[in-house]
């Protein structure tokens, strides 16, 4: 039985193709129920996000499995196989395992290290469990994928530092203010990036959002979205006395806030820091304000520079992450090879023999320390006989069930779990 | 006094070496944290730092027990005691503010002070009775602890200036990622000064009271008195501006560095270079 992975992602397929073959959660669950288990596909799982559609399967015949999935996808989404094939990639064995681990650890993401993908992969696994299309191999594979992703996040800096302009602004705010709780945000104008930044700030507990707009009605609308307060454009100079973070994104041709506006409010503010995020082009905030003490100005280029640098950092962290993935691939391979009748029986006997030895030695060293050599051998034989009798039935079961085609891996898996034969590995 | 007693006894040497190696390991741990950014280095370093402080305290107590007076007879003792006070204040403030990078700034200062300790020439002072007056002990203890807090304030102030520069210049390098927020640095600097200033005030007051009782006058234009007064007014100005005008950030950081420079100048000019009634404690 091999792991097979077939799919397409943002690197191999344009969005026009990706959107045609994407599955909703309900569709995925329903589809999985029809795919597996079947003659050619023993186990299956489907990851469908806006950047990828991937089938992870376990099958005895990888090629048969691939063509079955391809046919299924083409039929289900009514795409001609020849239109689909150029975008598809297939991996088997270690390569498939590695690809899945890389996806879960966000090494294959469009934005390297973005955190959503792990949740999406977990959701895919839940759907497969509900659809009863996953079995021993996929379960083990997925749990290991989650562990790899967690380890990568914990031990490398792949998720550190913002890689979007709006989030970079929030990180900067934290470097200035420490805690954002209770900080007052003034949004001037509107725009996707600016609004996203405000949302991030609210998520970080900034309270009190004030929204200023040339047209007051628009301010009222936007303020509603953030449960903030609409204010008039003319009030801005006055509001600078109390606001802590000002995000500006208007289409105005000239400056909205000038250096003298800020110099005038620093004394009433008692020099509390004031942070301007200028997302507008042409700029709204006088760059000279950055030279006023305790005032900080970042425009869109400054923020992009920060993002670019953070991305470089992530790329160098990704090298460490790849090493973690490689180790996990080897470990999964070891486990899969052990998932057979003979290795399982050997592991079971070894474990029991080790326990028996330990107990015999302990007793002979303490309670039974006065026994003669002959008696000692008798104890040894006695315990060995008990062990052999106790193991006889489980071993017979493994031999019989382990060679039956259906439910073979499942029974082996249950046996390994029941006797905890994989403890060192997990 | 028997000059032999000024050399370290075997117990003191042991305590000294334990403290010194503890501070060194702590410094290494703090630096390791700064470079590799793993908390474990800091935790280890800080454990060594606290152990070193315990041995350091033991050394001071043991010296006091041997000589029978407060162990502040010469420049060597003064350096040892100043390092102890700064280390104690650092441990206290760390427990409250948890600014992990500050260790990398304070660690070397303490270690170097302790490393030069045995190389400082010592000179016997003939009238150690003065060190047994409760007023003097109070005077010295309060001022040294106050100065310890000022050392910390200056270290935090330097960190603030580096971080502020990184944010203003938009070059986010090695230190930017490791230093905490401006707000935390600013508040900690303020807390250090607010902690040190009352101690300095109490210490100076105790000194004046002692001078009045022994010499019959409060103030004698001793160089150290003058420098101390300048230092006191500097910190008083810093606190006043902070509380009433809201001075913070760069200005406050620079002033806390200037304050430490003055406190050091008090020590150097007030005692080492000019004579006065403090001079005998610090003569070479």
Largest β sheet strand count, sense and barrel closure of chain B: none
Rounded to the nearest angstrom, the distance between the terminal CA atoms of chain A is 21 Å
**Number of helices, counting only DSSP H or I runs of 4 residues or more of chain B:** 9
Give the strand line-up of the largest sheet of chain A. Answer: 7-6-5-8-9-10
> Radius of gyration of chain A in whole Å, from Cα?
31 Å
Mean pLDDT of chain A: 90
**Residue windows where pLDDT falls under 50 for at least 5 positions of chain A:** none
Compact description:
The complex is a heterodimer of chains A (426) and B (284). Chain A has 426 residues and is an alpha/beta fold.
Structure overview:
The complex is a heterodimer of chains A (426) and B (284). With 426 residues, chain A is α/β, with parallel strands linked by helices. Chain A is built from 16 helices and ten strands. A six-stranded parallel sheet of chain A has the order 7-6-5-8-9-10. Chain A has a four-stranded antiparallel sheet with strand order 2-3-1-4, sandwiched between helices. The N terminus of chain B is likely disordered. The chains are: A alpha/beta (426), B mainly alpha (284). Chains A and B meet through helix 8 and helix 13 of A and helix 5 and helix 7 of B.
List the helices and strands and how they pair.
The complex is a heterodimer of chains A (426) and B (284).
Chain A: E1 2-9, H1 15-21, H2 25-35, E2 43-48, E3 52-59, H3 62-77, H4 81-84, E4 89-92, H5 94-104, H6 116-130, H7 136-155, H8 165-177, E5 184-189, H9 192-203, E6 207-213, H10 216-225, E7 229-232, H11 236-239, E8 245-249, H12 259-266, E9 274-278, E10 295-299, H13 300-338, H14 341-365, H15 373-401, H16 408-418
Helix pairs in contact in A: 2-6, 5-7, 5-13, 6-7, 7-13, 8-9, 8-13, 14-15
Chain B: H1 10-36, H2 39-67, H3 75-97, H4 102-116, H5 134-169, H6 174-178, H7 182-215, H8 223-244, H9 250-273
Helix pairs in contact in B: 1-2, 1-4, 2-3, 3-4, 3-5, 5-7, 5-9, 7-8, 8-9
């Amino acid at each position: 039985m091999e792991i097979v992975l077939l799919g397409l992602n943002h690197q191999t397929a344009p969005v026009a193709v990706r959107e045609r073959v994407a599955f909703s959660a309900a569709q995925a669950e329903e589809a999985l129920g029809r795919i597996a288990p079947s003659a050619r596909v023993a186990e299956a799982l489907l990851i469908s996000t806006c950047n990828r559609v991937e089938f992870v399967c376990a099958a005895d015949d990888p090629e048969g499995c691939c063509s079955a999935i391809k046919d299924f996808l083409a039929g289900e989404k009514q795409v001609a196989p020849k239109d689909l094939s150029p975008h598809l990639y297939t991996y088997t064995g270690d390569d498939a395992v590695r690809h899945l681990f890389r996806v879960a650890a966000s090494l294959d993401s469009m934005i390297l290290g973005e955190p959503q993908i792990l949740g999406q992969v977990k959701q895919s696994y839940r759907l497969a469990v509900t659809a009863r299309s996953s079995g021993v191999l996929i379960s083990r594979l997925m749990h290991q994928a989650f562990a790899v992703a967690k380890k990568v996040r914990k031990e490398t800096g792949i998720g550190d530092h913002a890689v979007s302009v709006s989030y970079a602004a929030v990180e900067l705010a934290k470097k200035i203010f420490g805690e954002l709780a209770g900080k007052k945000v003034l949004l001037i104008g509107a725009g996707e990036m600016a609004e996203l930044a405000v949302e991030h700030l609210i998520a970080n507990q900034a309270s009190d959002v004030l929204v200023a707009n040339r047209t007051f009605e628009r301010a009222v609308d936007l303020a509603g979205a953030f449960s903030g307060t609409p204010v008039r454009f003319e009030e801005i100079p006055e509001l600078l006395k109390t606001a802590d973070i000002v995000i500006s994104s208007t289409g105005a041709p000239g400056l909205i806030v000038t250096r003298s506006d800020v110099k005038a409010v620093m004394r009433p503010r008692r020099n509390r820091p004031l942070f301007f995020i200028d997302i507008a082009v042409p700029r709204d905030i006088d760059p000279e304000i950055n030279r006023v003490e305790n005032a900080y100005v970042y425009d869109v280029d400054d923020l992009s520079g920060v993002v670019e640098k953070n991305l470089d950092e992530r790329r160098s962290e990704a090298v460490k992450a790849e090493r973690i993935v490689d180790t996990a691939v080897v470990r999964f391979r070891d486990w899969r090879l052990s998932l057979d009748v003979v290795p399982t029986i050997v592991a079971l006997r070894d474990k029991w023999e080790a326990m028996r030895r330990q107990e015999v030695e302990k007793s002979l060293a303490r309670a039974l320390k006065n026994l003669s050599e002959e008696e000692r051998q008798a104890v040894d034989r006695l315990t060995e006989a008990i062990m052999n009798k106790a193991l006889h039935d489980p071993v017979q079961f493994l031999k019989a069930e382990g060679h039956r085609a259906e439910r073979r891996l499942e029974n082996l898996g249950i046996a390994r779990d029941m006797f905890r034969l994989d403890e060192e590995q997990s | 006094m028997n000059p032999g007693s000024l050399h370290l006894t075997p117990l003191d040497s042991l305590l000294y070496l334990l403290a010194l190696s503890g501070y060194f390991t702590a410094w290494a741990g703090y630096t390791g944290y700064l470079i590799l950014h793993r908390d474990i280095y800091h935790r280890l370093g800080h454990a060594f730092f606290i152990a070193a402080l315990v041995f350091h305290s033991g050394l001071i107590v043991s010296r006091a027990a041997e000589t029978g007076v407060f162990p502040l007879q010469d420049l060597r003792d003064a350096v040892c005691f100043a390092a102890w006070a700064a280390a104690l204040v650092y441990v206290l403030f760390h427990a409250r503010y948890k600014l992990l990078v500050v260790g990398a700034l304070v660690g070397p200062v303490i270690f170097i002070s302790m490393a030069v300790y045995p190389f400082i020439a010592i000179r016997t002072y003939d009238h150690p009775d003065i060190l047994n007056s409760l007023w003097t002990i109070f005077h010295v203890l309060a001022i040294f602890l106050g100065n310890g807090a000022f050392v910390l304030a200056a270290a935090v102030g330097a960190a603030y200036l580096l971080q502020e520069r990184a944010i203003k210049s938009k070059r986010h390098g090695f230190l930017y990622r490791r230093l905490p927020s401006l707000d935390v640095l600013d508040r900690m600097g303020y807390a250090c000064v607010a902690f040190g200033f009352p101690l300095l005030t109490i210490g100076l007051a105790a000194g004046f009271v002692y001078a009045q009782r022994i010499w019959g006058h409060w103030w004698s234009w001793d160089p150290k008195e003058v420098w101390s007064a300048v230092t006191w007014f500097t910190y008083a100005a810093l606190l006043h501006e902070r509380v009433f005008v809201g001075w913070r950030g760069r200005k406050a950081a620079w002033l806390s560095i200037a304050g430490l420079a003055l406190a050091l100048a008090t020590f150097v000019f007030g005692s080492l270079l000019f004579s006065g009634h403090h001079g005998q404690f610090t003569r070479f």
